[in-house]
């Protein structure tokens, strides 16, 4: 008999795909991907990233969703109930525990960056009403980072928005938010790509992104690409497991998974093709853009375009929405866990989890100004939290999910969740979660940390 989730269910296959794609497509695609490509040698990074998506991301995506759908609870309780059902060790619920911790850490800086997009949207709105607009991209961005009060204001606004949607629950909150906004963002990116084509620097951007210079590939580039594959597909912290819990039984996980991965990768590549032509058009150095890349580069295009303030406003607002549909998927696992484990209502649980995240976000936020001297492994506070959570904890979480789905869960159980795959494809999937994905992840991590 199929279990039902106490948190509600997605109303349809499309609803799940939209929500999962809404989770996947976010700052990771438009803020993080271009800046990592810029910092890690362009084409070399992009190539390794695409390989990580196909060889590691996709099989683990199937694994997370199918485990979630089978258990129908928050990740930790899903793993505990599977332990009861199949007799394996309860220790596997550490995947859910670690995942919750990664989700909290990632959302803490994610919300600060989403706050930047809100601030930029606000600046362009002000410009429409006669304000000064953004003339000097780097100066405006530097000024924002140096201003803890403004950062705090927008970080808080964004966390309130996130808590608000999660408090409303699966169908009323999460689902409705994604339906309109994702297509609008897509359209906006295409417009920017067209702008890039017309400035004449599109060719340079294509060359930068798609001509790999193999001499640039080292353990740092590979680890960054692996971390980004997990980050962008929302994998490794059992978030897709949490969303899978609300997925109706008749939906094909492989089909949905492939659509999600294609959309996600497509948006990242589009973002790259939108941003790098501008980098070249304005004679900027494509290498080492850092986390400020889109916030310094895009305003240059907007101030050059006719009606740029309106574009700027639309772009940063849509980016904020993309961040929003991702951030709710980061707050969902801790919230669902609190609902199951404590007498708290969904509303109070989401507030409690959200306030915790907000408070941890202060570390990143103050690291840009008051604590800008603090360096951890050469990184500022935000960079250090981003690195540990995204590039270390997510791959480790993914490794555990992969081993769990491949070795602990019975083939009968996983086969039943993937009936649409042919026998050959099912076997390929099973060996990729048993051997290929875990070995690749271990290899990358050991290159970086054991050497
Ligand atoms: N994938 C999102 C983005 O690209 C961020 C995100 C949402 C995430 N949920 C996640 C990352 C779960 C890792 C795990 O912006």
Summary of the model, kept short:
The chain is mainly α. The chain is built from 18 helices and no strands.
What does this structure look like?
With 451 residues, the chain is mainly α. Helices cover 78% and strands 0% of the residues. It has helices spanning 13-24, 27-39, 43-71, 75-86, 94-128, 137-145, 148-168, 170-199, 202-210, 219-233, 239-244, 253-281, 293-304, 308-341, 346-367, 381-408, 411-417, 423-449. It is globular and about 65 Å long. It binds tryptophan. Tryptophan binds at residues 23-24, 26-29, 106, 231-232, 234, 236-237, 239, 326, 329-330, 394.
Structure characteristics:
451 residues; mainly alpha; 18 helices; globular
**Ranges with pLDDT <50 over ≥5 residues?**
none
Strand-residue fraction?
A: under 5%
Number of helices in the DSSP assignment: 18
- Structural class of the secondary structure composition? mainly alpha
Q: How many strands, which pairing sense, and closed or not: the largest β-sheet?
A: none
| Order of secondary-structure elements | HHHHHHHHHHHHHHHHHH
Q: What is the first-to-last residue Cα distance?
A: 50 Å
Shape: globular
The mean pLDDT is 92
Helix content: over 70%
Radius of gyration: 21 Å
Small molecules bound in the structure, each named once: tryptophan
């Amino acid at each position: 008999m199929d279990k039902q989730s106490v948190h509600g269910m997605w109303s349809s296959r499309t609803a799940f795909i939209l929500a999962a794609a809404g989770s996947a497509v976010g700052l990771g695609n438009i803020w993080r991907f271009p800046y990592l490509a810029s910092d890690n040698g362009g084409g070399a990074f992009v190539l390794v990233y695409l390989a990580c998506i196909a060889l590691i991301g996709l099989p683990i995506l199937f694994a997370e969703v199918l485990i979630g759908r089978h258990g129908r609870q928050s990740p930790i309780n899903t793993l505990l109930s599977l332990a009861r059902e199949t007799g394996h060790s309860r220790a596997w619920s550490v995947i859910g525990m670690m995942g919750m911790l990664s989700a909290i850490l990632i959302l803490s800086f994610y919300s600060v960056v989403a706050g930047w997009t809100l601030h930029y949207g606000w600046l362009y709105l002000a410009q429409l009403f006669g304000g000064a607009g953004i003339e000097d991209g780097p100066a405006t961005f530097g000024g924002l980072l140096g201003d803890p009060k403004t950062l705090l204001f927008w970080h808080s606004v964004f966390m309130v928005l996130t808590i608000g949607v999660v408090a409303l629950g699966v169908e009323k909150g999460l689902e409705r938010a994604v339906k309109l906004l994702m297509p609008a963002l897509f359209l906006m990116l295409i417009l920017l790509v067209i702008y890039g084509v017309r400035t004449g620097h599109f060719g340079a951007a294509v060359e930068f992104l798609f001509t790999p210079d193999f001499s640039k590939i080292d353990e740092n580039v590979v680890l960054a690409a692996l971390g980004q594959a997990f980050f962008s597909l929302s994998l490794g912290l059992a978030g897709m497991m949490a969303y899978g819990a609300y997925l109706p039984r008749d939906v094909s996980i492989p089909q949905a998974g492939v659509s999600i991965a294609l959309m996600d990768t497509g948006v990242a590549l589009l973002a790259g093709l939108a941003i790098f032509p501008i980098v070249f058009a304005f004679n900027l150095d494509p290498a080492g853009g850092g986390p400020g890349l889109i916030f310094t580069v895009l305003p240059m295009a907007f101030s050059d375009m006719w009606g740029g303030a309106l574009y700027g406003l639309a772009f940063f607002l849509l980016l904020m929405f993309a961040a929003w549909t991702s951030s709710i998927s980061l707050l969902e696992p801790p919230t669902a866990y609190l609902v199951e484990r404590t007498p708290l209502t969904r509303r109070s649980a989401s507030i409690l989890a959200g306030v915790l995240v907000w408070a941890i976000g202060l570390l990143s936020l103050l690291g840009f100004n008051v604590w800008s001297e603090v360096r951890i492994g050469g990184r500022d506070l935000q960079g250090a939290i981003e690195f540990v959570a995204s590039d270390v904890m997510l791959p480790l979480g993914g490794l555990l999910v992969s081993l769990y789905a491949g070795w602990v869960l019975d083939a009968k159980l996983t086969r039943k969740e993937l009936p649409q795959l042919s026998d050959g494809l099912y076997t390929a999937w099973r060996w990729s979660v048993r051997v290929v994905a875990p070995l690749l992840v271990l290899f990358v991590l050991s290159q970086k940390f054991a050497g």
